[in-house]
Amino acid sequence: MKIDILTLFPEMFASPFSHSILKRAQEKKLLQINAINIRDFSRNKHHTVDDTPYGGGAGMVMGPESLFECFDYLEKKYGGKPGRVIMMCPQGEPFNQQYARELAREEHLVIVCGHYEGIDERVREALVTDEISIGDYVLTGGELPAMVVVDAVARMIPGVLGEAASAEDDSFYHGLLEYPHYTKPRSYRGYEVPEVLLSGHHENIRRWRRRQSLLRTLERRPELLTRATLTNEDKKILADLLHLLQSLNLS
Questions:
Q1: Catalytic residue list contains 155
Q2: Member of which family (predicted)?
Q3: Is position 185 annotated as part of the catalytic site?
Q4: Residue 245 is labelled as binding a ligand
Q5: Is 84 a catalytic residue?
Q6: Of 39, 53, 84, 90, which residue is the catalytic one?
Q7: Within the chain, which residues score under 50 in pLDDT?
């Protein structure tokens, strides 16, 4: 997969994408990330890309010229229009695991990082296919949200993670929160690893982990259960958990 990130601050992406899983994915040619400086496509001598808004108001707005020129460059580079063009903005569709899986099926993504008060609406109308928000809050620019999207999408690309099961066990992959993890030592400062994980009985371990996943989701994010695909076994576990929690509340 190729990901081109259009930004005023390409240096922000150097460190996050030069370590760990994303670094290895690029070394294995599974992922190609390019941070492109929007200022390089400015036609004025000061390389400015923003101006005051028509109609008045506070702040500055990123103009359309440099971004349109940048897309012209990408079309020439790749021999055609990019597939999905994502604008990071608070007004966008909320980003989630399902969205990440969908984007991971693409061969080429372009992510536009806004700054200042916003981006000229003509860029949105003519070039953007997706608007994404990572939460109901405002940041100083689209760079940090872009990093979040790239990281989440990259994990879904086949071969990026060492084991295919690693991504499938993540929180939200199947609509539920992940079960708790333990490693050595077996006992630490009076805190013990659950006996079932030491038993070597794979079916009992699977059932324990599923129960813990359902319990955590029920306690922390119960709204996820309305959208999750639940098996008959899951429904029985949830019924038992609800009965247990109700009895505890009554006692």
A1: yes
A2: Belongs to the RNA methyltransferase TrmD family.
A3: no
A4: no
A5: no
A6: 90
A7: 165
Token pair of 14 as six digits: 């150097």
Candidates 151, 170, 207, 210; catalytic one: 170
134 is in an annotated binding site: yes
Does the annotation place 136 within a ligand binding site? yes
Q: Read off the tokens for 21.
A: 């899983």
Q: Select 187-250's CATH number: 1.10.1270.20, 1.10.10.10, 1.25.40.10, 3.40.50.300.
A: 1.10.1270.20
Same fold, 2-163 and 187-250: no
Question: Taking a C-beta distance cutoff of 8 angstroms, is the pair 159, 147 a contact?
Answer: no
Identity of the residue numbered 145: P
Contact yes or no for 74/4 (Cβ under 8 A): yes
pTM score, whole prediction: 0.85
How high is the pLDDT of residue 52? 93
Given the residues 124, 130, 155, 234, select the one marked as catalytic: 155
Rg of the chain (C-alpha set)? 23
Q: What is the pLDDT of residues 166-206, one digit of tens each?
A: 555 555 557 899 999 999 999 999 999 999 999 999 999 99
Q: For domain 2-163, say whether CATH 3.40.1280.10 is its number.
A: yes
Q: Report domain extents, the chain.
A: 2-163, 187-250
Q: Is 114 annotated as a binding residue?
A: yes
Q: What CA–CA distance (Å, rounded) separates 242 from 210? A: 15
Written in H, E and C, the secondary structure of 133-166 is: ECCCCCCCECHHHHHHHHHHHHHCCCCCCCCHHH
- CA dist 215 to 93, 150, 152, Å? 28, 30, 24
